[in-house]
Amino acid sequence: MGPTPVLDQFLVSLQELVQNRDGAKVQDFLQLEPPLSDIYQRMIGELRQSYAPGPKTEAALLQRCEPLVPRSKGGGSWTAFPVFVKLYLIFLRDMNTDNLLETYNQLKVLLNQCVLALGDSQMGVVVLPTVLYLSKILAKLAMGLDRRPDLIAHIRRMEGLADQEESSEKVTLVEKSANVVREAFIKCLTDRTGTPGPHGKPEGKRIGIYLMANLCLKLFFQCGKLRNAEQMFASISAQSPPLAYFPASQRVTYLYYLGRYLFANNLFFPAQIALQAAYDQCHRQAISQRQLILSYLIPCNIMLGRFPSQTLLQRPESQALAKHFQPLCKLIVRGDYLAFRQHLQFGSTTAEWFAQKGILFTLRNRCEILVWRSFARKVFMYGGSWGGPQAQAQKGPPPVLNLKKLAAATEWLQAQHATTKSGTMAASNLYGSQVVPEPTDVDYAGLGGADGTAGPTTDEEILEKYGDFLGPDGFYDEGGSPQPNVPGQLIDGNPEEDYDDCELDPYAYDLDDRTEADRFTMMQEVESIFASLITQGLMGGYLLHREPRFAIPGAKIKGILPTGFPNVWQTISARESHDSSVPGWVQSRAPTGLGAAGGGRVVNLSPEPDQSARASSHISINNVFLQFHVYDTDALDTWFQNQRGHCPRNLNAKSNPAFSIPS
Amino acid sequence: MSNPTTQKNDATEQPQPPQKPQVLEEDDEFEDFPVEDWPQEEAEQTASSTANGGSEHLWEESWDDDDAAEDFSKQLQEELKKVEASA
């Protein structure tokens, strides 16, 4: 074993830093990201020479590292730290950037050990900066490798990992890293130093709560495992000191992720509060961060009925956003639901950006009701019976809108759009309702006939494409048993029989050939939409069913339009503000000077006893929400409304029309 | 970087690789701030925004369109007149 002067000096200095509990310098000492400076290269050389991989090397190295920690008088000594330093030295010795997967795995082991060292109640805090440093490198590496799987594909193949992962759910490197970082977060959160719980200022490891949480959240968002963040927010709500005690960079980052999480869970009002606070506290020169915050804050506000002002859209961070959100707002104001749908039709150029941001479906589902409100308002303005000043002054009939006019206006809209191809697609697919049709299922998008595209022409082509339907191998008899179709054998019945009198096509529809039944369906849809708007408070009045009308009573004080079509934002915010707590955001109990850090917005957020219970019950349905296809939106929406959400709901959530009887 | 052959193949097989998602991911990353802490003044856009009491002017609450001369409204009015006449 040769002389190791650099290593000796390294360990002596490190010991001194540990004794002084100088965490920042300890981190600075434990470099491992290439390119490493000359002194580290020399130490690596010494390690390779004197501590080459071998059966006894590890023990020998550990022996070198043990004096790093002070021999404690009473309690147990900090054994996790020497083990960590040993792993660090081995990592340096073996680092091979040609095998990034191996590097990743070693780094994860190293971080794990460092997190163990962090757990020590006396000394743990010394490695807090190191844990953060290693976590960041691990995160960077994991994100890089998940983004470029080709870099490690050959290694995976060699090690047979590729096949192995086919069979089980794939856990990405990013997610694996997040789970390690979460351990560090828990160590920080549960530190008992100083005043624990949500009252005291952060001390000891607790200063790392949001540093670790933010990194963890970044990774969860990166790998799309948002629901894994649920427990983190719940723990923070229960145990963290107020967010206001932490530095601005940590506050802003945390509020951004919290806001996005709430947004993804359809809690738009609290999401708006969190994102607005993030925006308000963000440094004005941090344009890229401000832009990211806005790209969720703006849609959040739009759904709640507030549009970005010119002032906001002219700010530098809005430059790239205005072109996406301005047209959307205009379409909502206009009230043309078909133009709105076309704009957000999956696959259209205008929808692409929203899809990339992950907000397309949310906007499409939540904003269409606002479009209908605008449309209804306009039809009322130009086609309603206002009753005249005399009728309002005395006890005359209230202003009414005959819903036949809305149905006629809707038909007119459909006719307008029928001339353009995409308009036809948005309006007149031939399945389901004509007013609120389902978008064409992509699986059926290429079928001939239904959407006007040319289908296969020859018999061979038809058989090849639809053979499983036209010439199936078998069928089920009356008893439900499968029977084979014997080729060349006729089935029961007379082949010459004339079926012309029987209607075989249940979807035989022609837009120009509306029957009374269609009008009835249309009226039902229109009534449903109105009922939904009334239930949500976005329209004020009642419905009459026999001669379908919408009546606006009690408009004397505020005026007819403000009564019948109240301001959306004011309606929603009035209802939401009774509960202004934001799950996951710990606020100071008493409004102190620090309250100003809340962006000038005074939000009284006394912790509620049922808050964590509520948060977790939200999340149990979030799992359903997070998957794109929510089948039973009605049930979910009703549940939601009961819990909290009074945000505009999608149209599919048709409430049972609650027809009132006029007095 | 270590596997140039794969990259080459990709390039020849797909003349227009859908590169947008990759760019997006990088775009979408919430970068670390270069400084740890700053006073609230440095977050304000202008001196007047605090005086205004916050963010109210950033959002338009009243956006209903009452302009009867606007194209869509005009067409709708005409259409509704026709309905009125035929009823």
UniProtKB/TrEMBL annotation, chain A:
Task: Give the Gene Ontology MF terms in alphabetical order.
Answer: double-stranded DNA binding; RNA binding
Write down the SMART domains for this protein, in alphabetical order. PAM
Specify the protein name.
Answer: PCI/PINT associated module
Upper lineage ranks? Eukaryota, Fungi, Dikarya, Ascomycota, Pezizomycotina
Automatic annotation (TrEMBL), chain B:
- Which compartments does it reside in? Nucleus
Q: Does the keyword ATP-binding apply?
A: no
Ranges annotated as biased composition (Acidic residues): 24-44, 61-70
Compositional bias per record (Polar residues), positions renumbered to this chain: 1-14
**InterPro entries per record:** DSS1_SEM1
Q: Which residues form the signal peptide?
A: none
| Keywords, ordered alphabetically | Nucleus, Proteasome
The free-text function statement in the UniProt record for this protein reads:
Component of the 26S proteasome, a multiprotein complex involved in the ATP-dependent degradation of ubiquitinated proteins.
Name of the molecule in the record: 26S proteasome complex subunit SEM1
